[in-house]
Amino acid sequence: MGKKDDPKLMQEWFKLVQEKNAMVRYESELMIFARELELEDRQSRLQQELRERMAVEDHLKTEEELSEEKKILNEMLEVVEQRDALVALLEEQRLREKEEDKDLEAVMLSKGFSLNWS
What we know:
By secondary structure, this protein is mainly alpha-helical. It has helices at residues 7-54, 63-110. Helix 1 packs antiparallel against helix 2 (63-110).
């Protein structure tokens, strides 16, 4: 029997694959959370700027100022859409990860290995 057939080595290999997957997933989540924080900050700054501009009554504003308010509002809507997309992406990744885990577990069980990840 070669090294590739050694059950202890295979069990260790499966464990290392699982650990690697967990680290990659964690990194991906952190990147999404960082982007979410950036968008949250951007949205907050836009809201503040819009509040300041809206403190002045519309009849006292120039067309350019009114146009700028609309631009800020549109940008806020884009930020909200981007944040929604991140939430959807995160959920999609979690579902895909569950499927990957099931696949790896099925391979392990088919080879006669236990599911002891600890």
